[in-house]
């Protein structure tokens, strides 16, 4: 499984040579989080020159999201907000990430393995593959208000992709200035986000552009206050149900609400974290 990463700014990671087999050109990556058991990875790619790869078949569920600059997929150019998802075993067309681009890249349930082909028509779909390639320009998608519980200002969503069988999804989230959730929350699935713009105060550190987090299922977190309008790209490996604690004691207790009887929350102990995000509430104790 992946380690718990509670707020690290991308700039606090070092660069590695991009691990994208059979590509040509200049690409560096920052490894935001990695599952060393199955190769699943969340990466920030930076193109130091044009980088490209021919058509082929990925060994993992594969995603790209353009933060800045652009990439071209099969002749279609995608600028900031461009999103590409390819299920494992499904042929994908040629790809070029243009010099200077900053692109988020995820591989899920598999490693960086890639079977090359001369062109898309020659790429052989795997027998157990499911789904098709998804290409989205998020700028053309409307924000939709998310359901809320209690007196909260709504969050807004742009759904980029959702697996109909597993519920795994990738989506954009926007919180308006002043949005706040004082309750301790946790979820039955993992929650991962990268901050695209804006700023939020949080008891475990500052959240601003470039801040990354990966929480395994069951990790309690909150509270939050949006100091500006703030946007994230968020991924979860299942339906993100909010289990809340109210009447909480300081750090170690509270009244459980709407928990399943078999569920036991996980209390974060020593997650990976970044000092540049600011002091934690427990520092100096």
Percent in strands: 35-45%
Shape designation:
globular
The Rg value, from CA coordinates, equals: 19 Å
The CATH superfamily of the largest domain is known as Jelly Rolls
pLDDT < 50 runs, ≥5 residues: none
- How do the helices and strands follow one another from N- to C-terminus? EEEEEEEEEEEEEEEEEEEEEEEEEE
What CATH architecture of the largest domain would you give? Sandwich
Quaternary class: single chain
Query: End-to-end span in angstroms?
Result: 30 Å
Keywords: Dioxygenase, Oxidoreductase
Protein name: Quercetin dioxygenase-like cupin family protein
GO molecular function: dioxygenase activity
Organism: Actinoplanes digitatis
List the helices and strands and how they pair.
Elements: E1 5-9, E2 16-17, E3 24-34, E4 41-53, E5 56-58, E6 61-68, E7 71-73, E8 76-78, E9 82-86, E10 95-97, E11 102-108, E12 114-116, E13 134-137, E14 144-145, E15 156-162, E16 169-175, E17 180-181, E18 184-186, E19 191-197, E20 199-202, E21 207-208, E22 211-215, E23 224-226, E24 230-236, E25 243-246, E26 255-256
Antiparallel strand pairs: 1-22, 2-3, 3-4, 4-10, 4-11, 5-12, 6-9, 6-11, 7-8, 7-10, 9-13, 14-15, 15-16, 16-24, 17-23, 18-25, 19-22, 19-24, 20-21, 20-23, 25-26
């Amino acid at each position: 499984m992946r380690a718990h990463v509670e707020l690290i700014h991308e700039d606090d990671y070092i660069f590695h040579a991009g691990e994208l087999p059979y590509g040509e050109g200049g690409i560096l990556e920052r490894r935001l989080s990695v599952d060393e058991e199955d190769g699943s990875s969340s990466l920030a790619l930076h193109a130091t020159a044009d980088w490209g790869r021919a058509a082929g078949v990925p060994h993992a569920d594969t995603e790209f999201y353009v933060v800045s600059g652009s990439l071209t997929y099969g002749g279609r150019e995608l600028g900031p907000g461009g999103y590409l998802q390819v299920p494992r075993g499904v042929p994908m067309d040629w790809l070029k990430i243009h010099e200077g681009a900053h692109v988020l890249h995820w591989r899920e349930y598999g490693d960086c393995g890639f079977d090359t082909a001369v062109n898309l028509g020659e790429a052989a779909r795997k027998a157990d593959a499911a789904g098709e390639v998804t290409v989205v320009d998020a700028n053309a998608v409307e924000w939709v208000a998310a359901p809320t519980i209690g007196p909260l200002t709504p969050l807004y969503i742009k759904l980029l992709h959702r697996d109909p069988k597993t519920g795994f999804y990738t989506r954009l989230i926007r919180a308006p200035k002043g949005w706040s959730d004082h309750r301790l929350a946790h979820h039955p699935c993992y929650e991962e986000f990268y901050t695209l713009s804006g700023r939020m105060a949080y008891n475990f550190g500052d959240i601003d552009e470039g801040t990354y987090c990966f929480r395994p299922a069951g990790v309690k977190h909150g509270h939050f206050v949006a100091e500006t309008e703030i946007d994230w790209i968020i991924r979860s490996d299942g339906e993100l149900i909010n289990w809340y604690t109210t009447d909480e004691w300081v750090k170690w207790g509270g009244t459980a609400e709407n928990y399943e009887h078999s569920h036991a929350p996980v209390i974060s102990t020593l997650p990976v974290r970044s000092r540049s995000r600011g002091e934690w509430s427990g520092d100096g104790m």
